[in-house]
Known about the structure:
This protein is α+β, with helices and mostly antiparallel strands. It contains 20 helices and 16 strands.
Amino acid sequence: MSLNQIWKVVGVYALVAALYIVFSDRIVFMLWSDPAVVQRISILKGWGFVFVTALTLAWMLLSQSRRELQRYRALLDNHHAIILVIEPHSGAILDASSAAVQFYGWSYQQLLAMRISEISVMDANQVQAEMDRALQQESSEFYFRHRQAAGTERDVAVLSGPIDRDGQTVLLSIVRDVTAQRENERELARMGRLYAMLSKSSMLLVHAANRQELFDGICRIAVEHGAFRFGWIGMLDSTGVIKPVASAGEDKGYVEAVRVQADASTEGGKGPAGEALRTGHAVVCNDLFADPRTAPWHALARQADIKASGAFPILSGGEIIGTLNLYAVDSHYFGANELATIEEITREISFGLNSLERTVALRTAASVIDTSPVVLFRWRAEPGWPVEFVSQNIARWGYSVASLYSGRIAFAQMVHPDDLAQVMEEVQRYTAEGSSEFRQTYRILTAAQEERWVEDLTNIERGVDGVPLFYQGIVTDITETRRAQEVSQTYLKRLEEAVLATTAAVSQMVELRDPYTAGHERRVGELAAAIAAEMGLDEDMQRGLRVAGAVHDVGKIMVPSEILSKPGRLSNVEYELIKQHAEQGYQILKDVAFP
Protein backbone atom coordinates (compact mmCIF):
# COMPACT_ATOMS: atom_id res chain seq x y z
CA MET A 1 0.00 0.00 0.00
CA SER A 2 1.38 3.38 -0.96
CA LEU A 3 1.77 6.38 1.34
CA ASN A 4 -1.11 8.24 -0.32
CA GLN A 5 -3.36 5.26 0.18
CA ILE A 6 -2.43 5.10 3.89
CA TRP A 7 -3.25 8.77 4.34
CA LYS A 8 -6.63 8.24 2.67
CA VAL A 9 -7.48 5.43 5.09
CA VAL A 10 -6.41 7.54 8.08
CA GLY A 11 -8.47 10.51 6.85
CA VAL A 12 -11.62 8.44 6.31
CA TYR A 13 -11.18 6.75 9.69
CA ALA A 14 -10.75 10.12 11.49
CA LEU A 15 -13.85 11.54 9.79
CA VAL A 16 -16.04 8.52 10.66
CA ALA A 17 -14.76 8.51 14.28
CA ALA A 18 -15.43 12.22 14.76
CA LEU A 19 -18.96 11.98 13.32
CA TYR A 20 -19.71 8.95 15.46
CA ILE A 21 -18.52 10.61 18.69
CA VAL A 22 -20.27 13.95 18.08
CA PHE A 23 -23.63 12.67 16.91
CA SER A 24 -23.81 9.68 19.28
CA ASP A 25 -23.19 11.85 22.35
CA ARG A 26 -25.78 14.42 21.26
CA ILE A 27 -28.41 11.71 20.67
CA VAL A 28 -27.72 10.10 24.08
CA PHE A 29 -28.07 13.40 25.95
CA MET A 30 -31.22 14.18 24.05
CA LEU A 31 -32.88 10.90 24.97
CA TRP A 32 -31.61 10.21 28.50
CA SER A 33 -30.90 12.50 31.41
CA ASP A 34 -30.15 9.85 34.05
CA PRO A 35 -26.37 9.72 34.55
CA ALA A 36 -26.40 6.00 35.34
CA VAL A 37 -28.21 5.27 32.10
CA VAL A 38 -25.93 7.59 30.18
CA GLN A 39 -22.90 5.78 31.64
CA ARG A 40 -24.20 2.37 30.61
CA ILE A 41 -25.11 3.66 27.17
CA SER A 42 -21.65 5.27 26.82
CA ILE A 43 -20.04 1.90 27.51
CA LEU A 44 -22.24 0.31 24.87
CA LYS A 45 -21.48 3.24 22.55
CA GLY A 46 -17.73 2.64 23.07
CA TRP A 47 -18.08 -0.99 22.08
CA GLY A 48 -20.16 0.11 19.14
CA PHE A 49 -17.43 2.58 18.13
CA VAL A 50 -14.87 -0.20 18.22
CA PHE A 51 -17.15 -2.43 16.15
CA VAL A 52 -17.93 0.26 13.57
CA THR A 53 -14.28 1.28 13.37
CA ALA A 54 -13.18 -2.33 12.87
CA LEU A 55 -15.79 -2.88 10.17
CA THR A 56 -14.80 0.36 8.44
CA LEU A 57 -11.11 -0.51 8.49
CA ALA A 58 -11.78 -4.06 7.36
CA TRP A 59 -13.97 -2.83 4.52
CA MET A 60 -11.40 -0.25 3.42
CA LEU A 61 -8.47 -2.68 3.56
CA LEU A 62 -10.38 -5.40 1.72
CA SER A 63 -11.42 -2.93 -0.92
CA GLN A 64 -7.82 -1.76 -1.30
CA SER A 65 -6.57 -5.37 -1.44
CA ARG A 66 -9.13 -6.25 -4.10
CA ARG A 67 -8.08 -3.23 -6.15
CA GLU A 68 -4.40 -4.16 -5.83
CA LEU A 69 -5.14 -7.77 -6.79
CA GLN A 70 -7.14 -6.56 -9.77
CA ARG A 71 -4.27 -4.31 -10.83
CA TYR A 72 -1.79 -7.16 -10.32
CA ARG A 73 -3.89 -9.54 -12.42
CA ALA A 74 -4.45 -6.87 -15.01
CA LEU A 75 -0.70 -6.39 -15.15
CA LEU A 76 -0.13 -10.09 -15.69
CA ASP A 77 -3.05 -10.65 -18.04
CA ASN A 78 -3.05 -7.50 -20.13
CA HIS A 79 0.59 -6.46 -20.23
CA HIS A 80 2.55 -7.55 -23.31
CA ALA A 81 5.61 -8.35 -21.22
CA ILE A 82 6.55 -11.96 -20.49
CA ILE A 83 6.43 -12.05 -16.68
CA LEU A 84 7.18 -14.94 -14.33
CA VAL A 85 6.91 -14.93 -10.52
CA ILE A 86 9.42 -17.45 -9.17
CA GLU A 87 10.06 -18.89 -5.72
CA PRO A 88 13.80 -18.17 -5.42
CA HIS A 89 14.83 -21.26 -3.45
CA SER A 90 12.97 -24.03 -5.24
CA GLY A 91 12.62 -22.32 -8.62
CA ALA A 92 8.88 -23.06 -8.66
CA ILE A 93 6.85 -20.84 -10.97
CA LEU A 94 4.24 -19.13 -8.78
CA ASP A 95 2.57 -17.02 -11.39
CA ALA A 96 2.84 -16.11 -15.08
CA SER A 97 1.47 -13.44 -17.38
CA SER A 98 -0.71 -14.25 -20.34
CA ALA A 99 2.19 -13.15 -22.58
CA ALA A 100 4.34 -15.81 -20.86
CA VAL A 101 1.69 -18.45 -21.55
CA GLN A 102 1.63 -17.42 -25.19
CA PHE A 103 5.43 -17.25 -25.50
CA TYR A 104 6.28 -20.59 -23.89
CA GLY A 105 3.33 -22.52 -25.32
CA TRP A 106 2.30 -24.23 -22.07
CA SER A 107 -1.02 -23.47 -20.38
CA TYR A 108 -1.21 -21.31 -17.29
CA GLN A 109 -1.82 -24.36 -15.09
CA GLN A 110 1.09 -26.24 -16.72
CA LEU A 111 3.46 -23.35 -16.09
CA LEU A 112 2.45 -23.14 -12.43
CA ALA A 113 3.27 -26.85 -12.09
CA MET A 114 6.82 -26.35 -13.46
CA ARG A 115 10.13 -25.11 -12.14
CA ILE A 116 12.28 -22.55 -13.95
CA SER A 117 15.02 -25.17 -14.40
CA GLU A 118 12.60 -27.08 -16.66
CA ILE A 119 12.44 -24.08 -18.99
CA SER A 120 16.07 -22.98 -18.97
CA VAL A 121 18.55 -25.07 -20.96
CA MET A 122 21.26 -23.96 -18.55
CA ASP A 123 22.46 -26.38 -15.89
CA ALA A 124 20.17 -26.36 -12.80
CA ASN A 125 23.03 -25.32 -10.50
CA GLN A 126 23.83 -22.37 -12.74
CA VAL A 127 20.16 -21.35 -12.76
CA GLN A 128 20.07 -21.45 -8.95
CA ALA A 129 23.28 -19.41 -8.77
CA GLU A 130 21.75 -16.73 -11.00
CA MET A 131 18.57 -16.63 -8.88
CA ASP A 132 20.67 -16.19 -5.73
CA ARG A 133 22.48 -13.27 -7.37
CA ALA A 134 19.14 -11.70 -8.32
CA LEU A 135 17.80 -12.24 -4.79
CA GLN A 136 20.82 -10.45 -3.35
CA GLN A 137 20.41 -7.81 -6.06
CA GLU A 138 24.02 -8.40 -7.20
CA SER A 139 22.78 -8.26 -10.76
CA SER A 140 19.42 -7.47 -12.30
CA GLU A 141 19.72 -8.67 -15.90
CA PHE A 142 20.70 -12.13 -17.07
CA TYR A 143 20.94 -13.92 -20.40
CA PHE A 144 19.52 -17.43 -20.72
CA ARG A 145 18.37 -19.80 -23.39
CA HIS A 146 14.77 -20.99 -22.74
CA ARG A 147 12.97 -23.90 -24.33
CA GLN A 148 9.37 -23.74 -25.48
CA ALA A 149 6.62 -26.36 -25.44
CA ALA A 150 7.19 -26.96 -29.18
CA GLY A 151 10.82 -27.93 -28.49
CA THR A 152 12.33 -24.77 -29.96
CA GLU A 153 14.92 -22.76 -28.07
CA ARG A 154 15.03 -18.99 -27.75
CA ASP A 155 17.62 -16.56 -26.44
CA VAL A 156 16.12 -14.41 -23.64
CA ALA A 157 17.22 -11.50 -21.48
CA VAL A 158 15.71 -11.69 -17.96
CA LEU A 159 15.28 -8.59 -15.78
CA SER A 160 14.81 -10.06 -12.30
CA GLY A 161 14.53 -8.71 -8.76
CA PRO A 162 12.97 -9.51 -5.36
CA ILE A 163 9.44 -8.37 -4.41
CA ASP A 164 7.11 -9.07 -1.48
CA ARG A 165 4.14 -11.26 -2.31
CA ASP A 166 1.76 -11.95 0.55
CA GLY A 167 4.60 -11.61 3.02
CA GLN A 168 6.89 -13.87 0.98
CA THR A 169 9.99 -12.68 -0.87
CA VAL A 170 9.82 -13.87 -4.47
CA LEU A 171 11.53 -13.01 -7.74
CA LEU A 172 9.65 -11.02 -10.34
CA SER A 173 11.25 -11.81 -13.71
CA ILE A 174 10.48 -9.91 -16.88
CA VAL A 175 11.58 -12.01 -19.86
CA ARG A 176 12.51 -10.43 -23.19
CA ASP A 177 12.99 -12.49 -26.38
CA VAL A 178 16.40 -11.44 -27.79
CA THR A 179 16.86 -14.35 -30.21
CA ALA A 180 17.07 -12.09 -33.28
CA GLN A 181 19.36 -9.67 -31.47
CA ARG A 182 21.67 -12.44 -30.24
CA GLU A 183 21.63 -14.04 -33.67
CA ASN A 184 22.63 -10.69 -35.19
CA GLU A 185 25.36 -10.36 -32.59
CA ARG A 186 26.59 -13.88 -33.35
CA GLU A 187 26.42 -13.13 -37.07
CA LEU A 188 28.37 -9.90 -36.60
CA ALA A 189 30.92 -11.73 -34.49
CA ARG A 190 31.14 -14.48 -37.09
CA MET A 191 31.54 -11.96 -39.91
CA GLY A 192 34.11 -10.10 -37.85
CA ARG A 193 36.08 -13.32 -37.53
CA LEU A 194 35.72 -14.00 -41.26
CA TYR A 195 36.88 -10.52 -42.19
CA ALA A 196 39.79 -10.90 -39.79
CA MET A 197 40.53 -14.18 -41.53
CA LEU A 198 40.41 -12.41 -44.91
CA SER A 199 42.65 -9.60 -43.67
CA LYS A 200 45.20 -11.97 -42.15
CA SER A 201 45.16 -14.09 -45.31
CA SER A 202 45.89 -11.02 -47.43
CA MET A 203 48.84 -10.15 -45.20
CA LEU A 204 50.07 -13.74 -45.42
CA LEU A 205 50.01 -13.58 -49.22
CA VAL A 206 52.44 -10.66 -49.10
CA HIS A 207 54.94 -12.38 -46.82
CA ALA A 208 54.69 -16.11 -47.70
CA ALA A 209 57.95 -17.31 -49.22
CA ASN A 210 56.64 -20.55 -50.72
CA ARG A 211 53.53 -22.64 -51.31
CA GLN A 212 53.83 -24.71 -48.12
CA GLU A 213 54.19 -21.63 -45.94
CA LEU A 214 51.09 -20.17 -47.61
CA PHE A 215 49.01 -23.33 -47.09
CA ASP A 216 50.09 -23.78 -43.46
CA GLY A 217 49.31 -20.13 -42.73
CA ILE A 218 45.83 -20.24 -44.32
CA CYS A 219 44.82 -23.27 -42.23
CA ARG A 220 46.16 -21.67 -39.04
CA ILE A 221 44.33 -18.37 -39.74
CA ALA A 222 41.06 -20.24 -40.40
CA VAL A 223 41.25 -21.77 -36.92
CA GLU A 224 42.65 -18.81 -34.98
CA HIS A 225 40.61 -16.02 -36.60
CA GLY A 226 37.77 -17.78 -38.42
CA ALA A 227 36.78 -19.83 -35.32
CA PHE A 228 36.61 -23.06 -37.32
CA ARG A 229 37.18 -26.27 -35.40
CA PHE A 230 39.82 -27.29 -37.92
CA GLY A 231 40.75 -26.91 -41.57
CA TRP A 232 42.98 -28.58 -44.13
CA ILE A 233 44.16 -28.11 -47.68
CA GLY A 234 44.27 -31.08 -50.03
CA MET A 235 46.07 -31.41 -53.36
CA LEU A 236 45.11 -33.86 -56.10
CA ASP A 237 47.82 -36.50 -56.61
CA SER A 238 48.49 -38.78 -59.58
CA THR A 239 46.20 -41.52 -58.22
CA GLY A 240 43.14 -39.24 -58.03
CA VAL A 241 43.29 -38.89 -54.22
CA ILE A 242 43.02 -35.46 -52.59
CA LYS A 243 46.04 -35.69 -50.32
CA PRO A 244 46.23 -33.39 -47.24
CA VAL A 245 49.27 -31.14 -47.47
CA ALA A 246 48.49 -28.70 -44.64
CA SER A 247 46.14 -28.62 -41.62
CA ALA A 248 45.43 -26.83 -38.34
CA GLY A 249 43.04 -27.22 -35.40
CA GLU A 250 41.71 -30.06 -33.25
CA ASP A 251 40.59 -32.60 -35.83
CA LYS A 252 40.97 -35.64 -33.51
CA GLY A 253 42.37 -37.76 -36.32
CA TYR A 254 39.81 -36.68 -38.94
CA VAL A 255 42.30 -35.30 -41.49
CA GLU A 256 44.60 -38.29 -41.23
CA ALA A 257 41.74 -40.78 -41.55
CA VAL A 258 39.70 -39.09 -44.27
CA ARG A 259 40.29 -40.29 -47.81
CA VAL A 260 38.74 -38.00 -50.39
CA GLN A 261 38.85 -38.77 -54.10
CA ALA A 262 38.02 -36.85 -57.27
CA ASP A 263 36.22 -39.74 -58.96
CA ALA A 264 32.46 -39.36 -58.41
CA SER A 265 31.91 -43.11 -58.82
CA THR A 266 33.90 -43.85 -55.66
CA GLU A 267 32.53 -43.49 -52.13
CA GLY A 268 35.21 -40.96 -51.24
CA GLY A 269 34.41 -38.85 -54.29
CA LYS A 270 30.78 -38.08 -53.38
CA GLY A 271 31.53 -35.63 -50.58
CA PRO A 272 31.93 -31.83 -50.76
CA ALA A 273 35.69 -31.88 -51.46
CA GLY A 274 35.41 -34.26 -54.41
CA GLU A 275 32.48 -32.34 -55.86
CA ALA A 276 34.26 -28.99 -55.42
CA LEU A 277 37.31 -30.37 -57.21
CA ARG A 278 35.23 -31.61 -60.14
CA THR A 279 32.91 -28.61 -60.53
CA GLY A 280 35.20 -25.76 -59.56
CA HIS A 281 32.50 -24.34 -57.26
CA ALA A 282 32.22 -24.12 -53.47
CA VAL A 283 30.27 -27.00 -51.95
CA VAL A 284 28.93 -26.81 -48.37
CA CYS A 285 27.12 -29.21 -46.09
CA ASN A 286 25.31 -27.35 -43.30
CA ASP A 287 24.13 -30.52 -41.59
CA LEU A 288 26.68 -33.31 -41.88
CA PHE A 289 24.51 -35.97 -40.30
CA ALA A 290 21.48 -35.25 -42.49
CA ASP A 291 23.44 -35.29 -45.75
CA PRO A 292 23.86 -38.74 -47.36
CA ARG A 293 26.93 -37.53 -49.26
CA THR A 294 28.90 -37.36 -46.04
CA ALA A 295 27.83 -40.78 -44.73
CA PRO A 296 31.35 -42.28 -44.99
CA TRP A 297 32.61 -39.67 -42.52
CA HIS A 298 29.75 -39.52 -39.96
CA ALA A 299 31.66 -41.48 -37.32
CA LEU A 300 34.74 -39.29 -37.78
CA ALA A 301 32.55 -36.16 -37.62
CA ARG A 302 31.01 -37.22 -34.30
CA GLN A 303 34.46 -37.90 -32.91
CA ALA A 304 35.70 -34.49 -34.08
CA ASP A 305 32.49 -32.76 -32.82
CA ILE A 306 31.67 -31.02 -36.13
CA LYS A 307 28.28 -30.42 -37.73
CA ALA A 308 28.99 -28.39 -40.87
CA SER A 309 31.69 -28.40 -43.53
CA GLY A 310 32.63 -26.53 -46.68
CA ALA A 311 35.01 -27.31 -49.55
CA PHE A 312 36.40 -24.50 -51.70
CA PRO A 313 38.42 -25.13 -54.90
CA ILE A 314 41.96 -23.76 -55.20
CA LEU A 315 43.20 -22.75 -58.65
CA SER A 316 46.67 -22.18 -60.02
CA GLY A 317 47.17 -20.91 -63.53
CA GLY A 318 43.45 -21.37 -64.19
CA GLU A 319 43.57 -25.06 -63.26
CA ILE A 320 41.95 -26.64 -60.16
CA ILE A 321 44.73 -28.22 -58.13
CA GLY A 322 43.12 -28.77 -54.71
CA THR A 323 40.57 -27.69 -52.11
CA LEU A 324 40.41 -25.70 -48.88
CA ASN A 325 38.24 -27.66 -46.41
CA LEU A 326 36.77 -25.99 -43.30
CA TYR A 327 34.69 -27.47 -40.45
CA ALA A 328 32.40 -25.78 -37.91
CA VAL A 329 30.91 -26.98 -34.63
CA ASP A 330 27.52 -25.37 -35.39
CA SER A 331 25.12 -26.58 -38.04
CA HIS A 332 23.96 -24.14 -40.72
CA TYR A 333 27.19 -22.20 -40.29
CA PHE A 334 27.75 -21.42 -43.95
CA GLY A 335 25.40 -18.63 -45.02
CA ALA A 336 25.65 -16.31 -48.01
CA ASN A 337 28.05 -13.92 -46.26
CA GLU A 338 30.30 -16.74 -45.08
CA LEU A 339 30.43 -18.25 -48.55
CA ALA A 340 31.25 -14.92 -50.19
CA THR A 341 34.05 -14.20 -47.72
CA ILE A 342 35.65 -17.64 -47.89
CA GLU A 343 35.40 -17.72 -51.68
CA GLU A 344 37.23 -14.37 -51.69
CA ILE A 345 39.94 -15.98 -49.55
CA THR A 346 40.31 -18.89 -51.98
CA ARG A 347 40.61 -16.41 -54.85
CA GLU A 348 43.34 -14.69 -52.86
CA ILE A 349 45.04 -18.07 -52.40
CA SER A 350 44.90 -18.71 -56.15
CA PHE A 351 46.30 -15.25 -56.82
CA GLY A 352 48.97 -15.84 -54.20
CA LEU A 353 49.98 -19.14 -55.80
CA ASN A 354 50.34 -17.48 -59.18
CA SER A 355 52.35 -14.67 -57.60
CA LEU A 356 54.56 -17.17 -55.78
CA GLU A 357 55.21 -19.02 -59.02
CA ARG A 358 56.11 -15.77 -60.74
CA THR A 359 58.26 -14.77 -57.78
CA VAL A 360 60.09 -18.10 -57.81
CA ALA A 361 60.59 -17.75 -61.55
CA LEU A 362 61.91 -14.21 -61.11
CA ARG A 363 64.19 -15.27 -58.27
CA THR A 364 65.51 -18.13 -60.36
CA ALA A 365 66.02 -15.85 -63.35
CA ALA A 366 67.68 -13.24 -61.15
CA SER A 367 69.94 -15.90 -59.64
CA VAL A 368 70.91 -17.13 -63.10
CA ILE A 369 71.55 -13.58 -64.29
CA ASP A 370 73.51 -12.65 -61.17
CA THR A 371 75.88 -15.57 -61.72
CA SER A 372 76.22 -14.97 -65.48
CA PRO A 373 78.18 -12.41 -67.51
CA VAL A 374 74.89 -11.03 -68.83
CA VAL A 375 73.60 -7.65 -67.54
CA LEU A 376 70.05 -6.60 -68.40
CA PHE A 377 69.40 -2.95 -69.20
CA ARG A 378 66.39 -0.82 -70.05
CA TRP A 379 67.10 2.79 -70.85
CA ARG A 380 64.89 5.62 -72.10
CA ALA A 381 65.23 6.92 -75.64
CA GLU A 382 66.40 10.30 -74.36
CA PRO A 383 69.72 12.11 -74.51
CA GLY A 384 72.33 10.22 -72.51
CA TRP A 385 70.06 7.15 -72.33
CA PRO A 386 68.94 7.40 -68.64
CA VAL A 387 68.55 3.96 -67.10
CA GLU A 388 65.02 2.69 -66.35
CA PHE A 389 66.07 -0.78 -65.18
CA VAL A 390 69.28 -2.70 -64.64
CA SER A 391 69.90 -6.15 -63.15
CA GLN A 392 71.61 -6.46 -59.78
CA ASN A 393 74.77 -7.94 -61.23
CA ILE A 394 75.73 -4.51 -62.55
CA ALA A 395 77.74 -4.56 -59.33
CA ARG A 396 80.30 -6.75 -61.14
CA TRP A 397 81.35 -3.56 -62.95
CA GLY A 398 81.44 -1.56 -59.73
CA TYR A 399 78.18 0.35 -60.24
CA SER A 400 75.22 0.35 -57.85
CA VAL A 401 71.65 -0.04 -59.03
CA ALA A 402 70.69 3.08 -57.09
CA SER A 403 73.24 5.23 -58.90
CA LEU A 404 71.76 4.27 -62.26
CA TYR A 405 68.12 4.48 -61.18
CA SER A 406 68.63 7.93 -59.71
CA GLY A 407 69.96 9.21 -63.03
CA ARG A 408 73.32 10.10 -61.54
CA ILE A 409 74.88 7.74 -64.09
CA ALA A 410 73.32 7.34 -67.55
CA PHE A 411 74.03 4.41 -69.82
CA ALA A 412 75.94 6.58 -72.32
CA GLN A 413 78.40 7.49 -69.55
CA MET A 414 79.38 3.84 -69.24
CA VAL A 415 80.35 3.49 -72.93
CA HIS A 416 84.05 4.00 -73.66
CA PRO A 417 84.56 7.55 -74.99
CA ASP A 418 86.43 6.22 -78.05
CA ASP A 419 83.49 3.97 -78.95
CA LEU A 420 80.56 6.25 -77.98
CA ALA A 421 80.27 8.08 -81.32
CA GLN A 422 80.24 4.82 -83.28
CA VAL A 423 77.72 3.22 -80.91
CA MET A 424 75.37 6.23 -81.10
CA GLU A 425 75.68 6.36 -84.91
CA GLU A 426 74.81 2.66 -85.17
CA VAL A 427 71.83 3.08 -82.81
CA GLN A 428 70.52 6.01 -84.84
CA ARG A 429 70.97 4.06 -88.07
CA TYR A 430 69.24 0.92 -86.83
CA THR A 431 66.42 3.04 -85.37
CA ALA A 432 65.94 4.99 -88.60
CA GLU A 433 65.87 1.75 -90.60
CA GLY A 434 62.92 0.58 -88.47
CA SER A 435 64.86 -2.31 -86.93
CA SER A 436 63.37 -3.90 -83.86
CA GLU A 437 66.59 -5.62 -82.79
CA PHE A 438 70.28 -5.20 -83.49
CA ARG A 439 73.65 -6.34 -82.14
CA GLN A 440 76.71 -4.24 -81.27
CA THR A 441 80.20 -4.86 -79.91
CA TYR A 442 81.98 -2.08 -78.04
CA ARG A 443 83.87 -1.25 -74.88
CA ILE A 444 82.53 0.06 -71.59
CA LEU A 445 84.29 1.56 -68.60
CA THR A 446 83.73 0.10 -65.15
CA ALA A 447 83.36 2.34 -62.11
CA ALA A 448 87.12 1.81 -61.60
CA GLN A 449 87.72 2.97 -65.23
CA GLU A 450 88.71 -0.51 -66.36
CA GLU A 451 87.96 -1.34 -70.02
CA ARG A 452 85.60 -4.23 -70.68
CA TRP A 453 84.43 -5.54 -74.05
CA VAL A 454 80.68 -6.23 -74.33
CA GLU A 455 78.30 -7.61 -76.89
CA ASP A 456 74.94 -5.82 -76.76
CA LEU A 457 71.78 -7.38 -78.20
CA THR A 458 69.32 -4.47 -78.13
CA ASN A 459 65.56 -4.46 -78.63
CA ILE A 460 63.70 -1.24 -79.48
CA GLU A 461 60.36 -0.61 -77.80
CA ARG A 462 58.31 1.88 -79.80
CA GLY A 463 55.10 3.77 -79.15
CA VAL A 464 51.96 3.52 -81.27
CA ASP A 465 53.39 6.26 -83.50
CA GLY A 466 56.56 4.25 -84.09
CA VAL A 467 58.75 6.61 -82.08
CA PRO A 468 61.28 4.75 -79.86
CA LEU A 469 60.42 4.86 -76.16
CA PHE A 470 62.92 2.44 -74.64
CA TYR A 471 65.98 0.40 -75.55
CA GLN A 472 66.28 -2.97 -73.83
CA GLY A 473 69.70 -4.51 -73.95
CA ILE A 474 71.16 -7.89 -73.07
CA VAL A 475 74.75 -6.82 -72.47
CA THR A 476 77.25 -9.70 -72.28
CA ASP A 477 80.79 -9.25 -71.00
CA ILE A 478 83.01 -10.80 -73.72
CA THR A 479 86.29 -9.40 -72.45
CA GLU A 480 87.82 -12.79 -71.68
CA THR A 481 86.52 -14.24 -74.92
CA ARG A 482 87.91 -11.27 -76.78
CA ARG A 483 91.27 -11.68 -75.09
CA ALA A 484 91.27 -15.38 -75.89
CA GLN A 485 90.47 -14.56 -79.51
CA GLU A 486 93.32 -12.05 -79.61
CA VAL A 487 95.69 -14.65 -78.19
CA SER A 488 94.43 -17.22 -80.69
CA GLN A 489 94.87 -14.79 -83.55
CA THR A 490 98.40 -14.05 -82.37
CA TYR A 491 99.21 -17.77 -82.26
CA LEU A 492 97.52 -18.29 -85.61
CA LYS A 493 99.50 -15.48 -87.15
CA ARG A 494 102.73 -16.87 -85.75
CA LEU A 495 101.85 -20.33 -86.97
CA GLU A 496 100.97 -18.94 -90.38
CA GLU A 497 104.26 -17.08 -90.48
CA ALA A 498 106.06 -20.28 -89.48
CA VAL A 499 104.27 -22.24 -92.20
CA LEU A 500 105.06 -19.63 -94.79
CA ALA A 501 108.69 -19.53 -93.67
CA THR A 502 108.87 -23.32 -93.83
CA THR A 503 107.26 -23.28 -97.26
CA ALA A 504 109.75 -20.69 -98.46
CA ALA A 505 112.60 -22.81 -97.12
CA VAL A 506 111.33 -25.90 -98.96
CA SER A 507 110.87 -23.83 -102.11
CA GLN A 508 114.47 -22.62 -101.83
CA MET A 509 115.71 -26.18 -101.38
CA VAL A 510 113.94 -27.20 -104.59
CA GLU A 511 115.36 -24.20 -106.40
CA LEU A 512 118.89 -25.07 -105.21
CA ARG A 513 118.52 -28.56 -106.69
CA ASP A 514 117.09 -27.17 -109.96
CA PRO A 515 118.88 -23.93 -110.81
CA TYR A 516 117.18 -23.74 -114.22
CA THR A 517 113.77 -23.11 -112.59
CA ALA A 518 114.94 -20.75 -109.83
CA GLY A 519 112.14 -18.42 -108.75
CA HIS A 520 109.55 -20.46 -110.66
CA GLU A 521 107.63 -21.71 -107.54
CA ARG A 522 107.44 -18.22 -106.03
CA ARG A 523 106.23 -16.66 -109.29
CA VAL A 524 103.55 -19.36 -109.74
CA GLY A 525 102.25 -18.58 -106.23
CA GLU A 526 102.21 -14.83 -106.82
CA LEU A 527 100.43 -15.21 -110.15
CA ALA A 528 97.81 -17.54 -108.64
CA ALA A 529 97.17 -15.12 -105.78
CA ALA A 530 96.84 -12.23 -108.22
CA ILE A 531 94.34 -14.15 -110.35
CA ALA A 532 92.35 -15.00 -107.16
CA ALA A 533 92.29 -11.33 -106.17
CA GLU A 534 91.07 -10.40 -109.65
CA MET A 535 88.33 -13.01 -109.29
CA GLY A 536 87.24 -11.48 -105.96
CA LEU A 537 88.26 -14.42 -103.79
CA ASP A 538 88.97 -13.65 -100.13
CA GLU A 539 92.40 -13.18 -98.59
CA ASP A 540 92.43 -16.67 -97.05
CA MET A 541 92.06 -18.18 -100.53
CA GLN A 542 94.77 -15.88 -101.90
CA ARG A 543 97.19 -16.90 -99.13
CA GLY A 544 96.38 -20.53 -99.73
CA LEU A 545 97.12 -20.24 -103.45
CA ARG A 546 100.41 -18.42 -102.71
CA VAL A 547 101.48 -21.31 -100.46
CA ALA A 548 100.35 -23.90 -103.01
CA GLY A 549 102.39 -22.21 -105.73
CA ALA A 550 105.48 -22.15 -103.53
CA VAL A 551 105.39 -25.92 -102.93
CA HIS A 552 103.83 -27.22 -106.13
CA ASP A 553 107.20 -28.60 -107.32
CA VAL A 554 108.34 -30.00 -103.96
CA GLY A 555 108.31 -33.51 -105.50
CA LYS A 556 111.47 -32.67 -107.45
CA ILE A 557 113.35 -33.41 -104.22
CA MET A 558 112.89 -37.08 -105.12
CA VAL A 559 114.48 -36.60 -108.58
CA PRO A 560 118.30 -37.02 -108.73
CA SER A 561 120.03 -33.65 -108.92
CA GLU A 562 122.22 -34.73 -111.89
CA ILE A 563 119.07 -35.19 -113.95
CA LEU A 564 117.62 -31.84 -112.80
CA SER A 565 120.90 -30.02 -113.63
CA LYS A 566 121.81 -32.00 -116.84
CA PRO A 567 122.74 -29.47 -119.48
CA GLY A 568 121.83 -31.65 -122.46
CA ARG A 569 118.70 -33.34 -123.70
CA LEU A 570 117.07 -35.83 -121.30
CA SER A 571 116.72 -39.47 -122.31
CA ASN A 572 113.28 -41.06 -122.27
CA VAL A 573 114.05 -42.79 -119.02
CA GLU A 574 115.22 -39.57 -117.42
CA TYR A 575 112.14 -37.73 -118.65
CA GLU A 576 109.89 -40.39 -117.12
CA LEU A 577 111.65 -39.85 -113.80
CA ILE A 578 111.11 -36.10 -114.07
CA LYS A 579 107.35 -36.61 -114.66
CA GLN A 580 107.10 -38.56 -111.41
CA HIS A 581 107.74 -35.39 -109.33
CA ALA A 582 104.01 -34.45 -109.21
CA GLU A 583 103.07 -37.82 -107.66
CA GLN A 584 106.01 -37.53 -105.29
CA GLY A 585 104.89 -34.03 -104.26
CA TYR A 586 101.42 -35.33 -103.52
CA GLN A 587 102.84 -38.13 -101.38
CA ILE A 588 104.92 -35.59 -99.44
CA LEU A 589 102.15 -33.01 -98.83
CA LYS A 590 98.97 -35.13 -98.58
CA ASP A 591 99.04 -35.37 -94.76
CA VAL A 592 99.93 -31.70 -94.16
CA ALA A 593 96.92 -29.44 -93.17
CA PHE A 594 97.72 -26.60 -95.55
CA PRO A 595 95.05 -23.97 -96.34
